[in-house]
Amino acid sequence: MGSVIRLQDRRNHHEATPRRVFTPETTFDRYIAMAIERGKLANLVFDDPGKLSTGP
After folding, report:
1. Reported pTM
2. Which segments of the chain does DSSP mark as H helices, in order?
3. pLDDT, average across residues 23-46
4. d(CA 21, CA 15)
């Protein structure tokens, strides 16, 4: 039973991973980062993202 407790202790001991912060260097970098954050990258890259669907 001692080994089970040790395994549980190890499993619950997670260290927080440091978050990486992206600092845009140019206006273009900031524009792309904002589009990614808002989920609008397809609108930025493609003229008409609606045409990408394979529907009828």
Report:
1. 0.49
2. 2-11, 27-38, 41-45
3. 89
4. 18
